[in-house]
Amino acid sequence: MSVVATQNTKVSAETETGVVKNWKNPVIYTILALLSVFLIGVRAPEKTISLGISDGVRWFQAEPLQINPQVYGWVAVAVMLALAAYALVTTNAGKLLGRWVAPLFWLTFVTGLLVWAIGSTTKPSLSLVSLLTGAVALSIPMIFGSMGGLLCERSGIVNIAIEGQLLFGAFSAVLVGSITGSPWAGLLAAMAGGVLVSAILALFSIKYLVDQVIVGVVVNVLVSGLTGFLFARVLQPNAPTLNSAPKLPGFEIPVLSQIPVIGPVLFNQNVLVYLMYFVVGLIWFALNKTKWGLRTRAVGEHPKAADTLGVNVNRLRLMNVLLAGAVAGMGGAFFTLVSVSAFNSDMTAGQGYIALAALIFGRWTPVGALSAALLFGFSLNLQFVLSILGTQVPTELLAMLPYLVTIFAVAGLVGRSRGPAAVGTPYVKE
Amino acid sequence: MKLELRKVTKRFGDFTANDSIDLTVTPGTVHCLLGENGAGKSTLMNVIYGLYRPTEGQMFIDDQPVEFSGPSDAMAAGIGMVHQHFMLVPVFTVAENVALGAESIKGATLDLESTRKKIREISDRYGFQVDPDAVVENLPVGVQQRVEIIKALVRDAEILILDEPTAVLTPAETDQLLGIMDQLRKDGKSLLFISHKLREVREISDDITVIRRGKVVGHAQPTMSTTELASMMVGKNVQLTVDKDAAQLSDKVFEVKNLTLMADNGVPLLKDVSFEVRGGEILAVAGVQGNGQTELAESIIGLHPKATGSLSLNGTELLGMSTKQVLRSGVGFVPEDRSKDGLIGSFSISENLVLDLFDTPEFSSAGTLNRSKISANADRAGTEFDIRMGSKEHTASTLSGGNQQKIVVARELSRDLQLFVGSQLTRGVDVGSIEFIHKRIVQERDKGVPVLIVSTELDEVYGLADRIAVFFHGELMGIVPPTTPRSVLGQMMAGATYEEALAADTEHSEASSVSAAKTQVTESAPWAEGEENER
Predict the structure, then answer these.
(1) How many CB atoms neighbour CB A103 within 10 A?
(2) What is the mean pLDDT of chain A?
């Protein structure tokens, strides 16, 4: 009897899965491609762009790349129109789009837009290396922040408080760094500051079961108010002794830093960047390859299952939330020990929230979140670079760029991404 | 290992869930704990597994007193549990699920390879056919359950608790599970089997302890008849069959034609389903949970705007109407999850009784609710449907499952219906209320209303149906008369057509039962299970 049953199960499992015609992407492609015809095609700037590619490399010199925005613009427009037409035809025929279509389209669109934006500045000449180096540096707080978010969320706690952890980390770093005169002590203090903020989050969300989103927001407001007050009353009047920390050093890694373009971008950086590589690698390894990681993921997905197997759910969550504070705190140190050497009120400017967006965009994985944070860092740096080059786009609009990229990335591109199943739900034993 | 409970009591506040329970499970036997929903079986299991602390009483393992402060203590003592709701992380692989909590490590890293090896050993030994690298959410329910058993066995469990393990299985999977339990028994394990399904209990048990309202009410032998066991479990003589006369067809008709529904990811949920229900008959939809029955019911009520085909009720097309329009055209609907879709737990009983009627002229005018009418309606429904409530102003969530379901049924049956659709009408409902609800459904049918019942309980299907429609993977496998043997229906539920199932069934009974410990009852009257069940 079971023979019949299994045969049939197999047949039905293999036979047709129908296709639901999804017009969303083809329509988006068509609209963007048509818009591009006018923007980066018809209205392409006339000046030729010069893009330096060999800065920072001693053994190799190359002429800057010359890009004609008109040529590039029309090529990009042609590619986009072709892709849009292909998408429309394929969808109409009831077939699924290939996986290569979306990345290719967006790459063409974004580079087309970039070439247009750079070409329309008053002096369209820049170094690719410095553009990317700046992007990596500016991503640091977001990367650390998203790693902090990841540690929390994978174990089932929503971490809206990344912003507060970054800000308090920055504050603690400058205070201790200035007093001791050591940036390393400052870095440790930043981690401790992050842990302190985490402790509030943990106390209310794990022990008192308060809604985690609300606790997170309240913590952010609290930290913002507290550091603002202390800055105005304590740091500012004593700026030379309390608000001027020595910077963390940067250094060049031999050999690796001499690889053209990526060498100087990745291996001639501040020590905090190298620390970031280590932390991301460690979290990736720990999450996927260790006992701690298995338990953390289990607690974030199905805490009750973990509990019935003898895992102490709330203790593990507490540990991870505190750890997250330390990691996010390191990101806070970027603001006062790398970027500038003084604290200013609300200097994190919402980057904690962008870190959270990076985590979601990166689908809750370390490498994904890292890539997303780098993308956001790039758009942040692009805003600075464009205004230095003298773009015609108003600076206020440019300042919106990173946030626009974030919202489009999270809402549009990511599709339906699935987070840890139990995130946001406190675990209570019956 | 021998497990013994002496006078174990568990109280939650004033409520006594378990009242001085005595129970002994000896090695090499299957001991069944039989009781209705809410009799305190699950509480007792949680006490044994260390999730709850007993208020009074003692537990002994091999005559040594034990006390558990958590599941890890229980596991260390050799107790394993297969939970009713699987305790598996859906996105993990089998190996990860098995390793969790008892990880073997190599240096700093997790050693999943040794776990995989253990899984393969156990899998080979008992013929489980479980791939350690399969992701759990992609596995069929029966296999997921075997993963749960592997979890217990990897931890060297000698005492195995199975909490309602057959609730989610197809008949064929149930037979496989019973075979596995038999093997484990022969291996000298002590098994504690919790169930309220009498057929299985009689088939596999060595001893039966019956509990009712938290108390042991007696011991039974597997040789006793289902009717005897049922009345022991419920405490009165219950009528397991539903009294009904032959169907008197009326001219009302509900016709489903080429109903098709795709999920967003392109997986078909309903494939070209066509059938007809005439007034005065009950069509019962049978199938394992998740084979399109839910979607069928939801499509009828207008919850799936993307469904294509036709749903015509006395000539009116329902597809394309909003849910409210469908309800107003005279469709009564009982959803499968009453606490989620049928009731608002924090609303009062009288409010819940008018949830889909409150804006009719009967209960409101000029945008204002007519409280006295609503209250009078609650009194009427309370009496008519025997809803046991303290006050009609109490919130619905304070009632038991059976009484909650009566509210939903009362609300849907208090209108003049053209069609009645009910999903899992008696899930989590006590036997007394089941009897009552079934009677009301038959009354509705006798009024000449077409009735469509979706149920995963074969007993219910056989009890109510005039015709049985079997669903598998969103497809209608066929419509069969209620005299079809259980085994044939079971195979149809696993994807065979009626002809295939019938052929395979005869073949099987000729080849005599090769598979161990499965008593294939040849059922002329399926519901009677070949014994003295007076019909």
Answers:
(1) 10
(2) 88
Non-local (6+) Cβ contacts of B308 within 8 A are: B258, B259, B260, B261, B319
What is the phi/psi pair of residue B236, to 5°? -150, 170
CA B383 to chain centre: 28
**From residue B133, how far is each of A367, B105, B147, B151, B398 by CA, in Å?**
23, 18, 12, 15, 44
Secondary structure, 3-state, A336-385: HHHHCCCCCCCCCCCHHHHHHHHHHHCCCCHHHHHHHHHHHHHHHHHHHH
Name the burial class of residue A340, with classes exposed (0-12), middle (13-18) and buried (19+) by CB atoms within 10 angstroms of its CB.
middle
Q: Read off the tokens for B139.
A: 């596995």
Mean pLDDT, residues A6-23 taken together:
50
Euclidean distance between CA atoms A11 and A190, whole angstroms: 59
Report how far residue A163's alpha carbon sits from residue A217's, in angstroms, rounded to the nearest whole number: 9
Dump strand ranges (E) for A221-327.
Answer: 250-252, 268-270
For residues A247 and A341, give the distance between their C-alpha atoms in angstroms, rounded to a whole number.
6
Q: What is the ipTM for the molecules in this complex?
A: 0.84
Pairing relationship of beta strands A49-52 and B190-195 according to DSSP bridges: unpaired
Amino acid making up residue B127: G
Give dist(CA B160, CA B192) in Å, integer. 6
Check residues B415 and A187 and name the one with the higher pLDDT. Answer: A187
A308/B109 Cβ within 8 A: no
Residue listed under structure tokens 């499968």: B336
Classified as helix, coil or strand, B322 is coil
Q: Is B291 helix (H, G, I), strand (E, B) or coil?
A: coil
Find the residue in B nearest to A305 (Cα): B87
Contact B262 A18 (CB under 8 A): yes
Question: Residue A47's closest CA among A127, A130, A116, A108?
Answer: A116
pLDDT tens-digit readout, B45-63 = 889 998 889 999 999 999 9
Chain centre to alpha carbon of residue B416: 30
Chain B CB contacts of A316 below 8 Å: none
Is A4 an interface residue toward B (CB < 8 Å)? yes
Position A294 pLDDT exceeds 90: yes
- Per residue in B295-345, pLDDT (tens digit) is 999 999 999 988 999 999 998 999 889 999 999 999 999 998 888 888 998
Residue bearing tokens 């042991």: B216
Most distant CA pair in chain B, distance: 75
Contacts of A241 (CB under 8 A, 6+ apart): A178, A179
> Out of B90, B472, B504, whose CB is closest to A1?
B504
CB atoms within 10 A of CB A139: 31
Q: Judge whether residue A1 has pLDDT over 60.
A: no
What is the C-alpha to C-alpha distance for residues B482 and B311, in angstroms, rounded to an integer? Answer: 25
Cβ atoms of B46 and B16 closer than 8 Å:
no
Largest separation between any pair of C-alpha atoms in chain A: 87
Task: Give the separation between CA B276 and CA B266, rounded to whole angstroms.
Answer: 27
Chain B, 69 to 88: residues with Cβ < 8 Å from chain A are 70-72, 75, 81, 83, 86-88
Give, in order, the Cα–Cα distances in Å from B322 to each of B269, B270, B303, B305.
20, 20, 8, 8
Buried b (16+ CB within 10 A) or exposed e, B465-499: bbbbbbbbbbbbbbebebebbbbbbbbbbbbbbbe
| pLDDT of A210 over the 70 cut | yes
3-state secondary structure of A81: helix
DSSP state of B135: B
Per-residue pLDDT of B238-261, as tens digits, reads 556 777 888 888 888 999 999 999
The residues that bridge with A419 in the sheet, in sequence order, are none
Q: If you average pLDDT over each of A54-58, A193-197, B334-338, B352-356, which comes out highest?
A: A193-197
